[in-house]
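Reopening this ticket.

The earlier resolution said the output was attached, but the attachment link was broken on my side. Pasting everything inline this time so it's all in one place.
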Amino acid sequence: MHKALGLTLLELLISILVISLLAAVGLANMPHLIAQQQSTASLNQIIGGVAFARSSAITLGVATTFCPSANLQEAAPPRGCGPGNTWHHGSIIFQDHNRNGQLDTNDRVLRRLPGWSHSATVTWRAFRARPYLQFTRRGFTNWQNGSFVYCPTNLGSTGDGGEGNLRYARRLVLNQAGRSYRAYDRNGDGIDEGSRNTRLRC
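Inline output:
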């Protein structure tokens, strides 16, 4: 006589309960995972743009400008860069023969980077307060040590000064020599700090 194989009603109910609990935990963490992924992807795009602009300046032997491209495509030459707090709308990298920070008729566009569909802002803050980042043909910045700051804006606050957003904010720091590094959380509070252990601010 063959022994029946299968689950009892009690075993089936326990299995359903375990699966439901795991699904609930996964759904609760989903916004966190999405925000982390968006932060990582956005920072990587900025890092890639900076690296490409710098390497292009060195390889082509011409100053290269990396700037926010708000309304840049619609305007007639010479076309200036968008404001320094609009990088999230898209950016552009071009040869800047006269180093004026404008896309002139004889300048060539090297790459266009799209903006982000999710709610976030990207700001470039640097010495000399220019809205763009420029590399000389030797790969140095044009005396523009500073940082890119990525800040999500569609996430709820934890109730303490918007730290719910700051936990997903990111900073990329550049020195005058054109080298970059990412800021990290140094004190374990979940928010990145700068070189002087100052908290990132959006």
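Reporter confirms the inline version is readable. The beta strands are 64-68, 79-80, 90-95, 102-103, 109-114, 120-126, 133-135, 146-152, 170-174, 180-182. Residues 156-162 have pLDDT under 50 and may be disordered.
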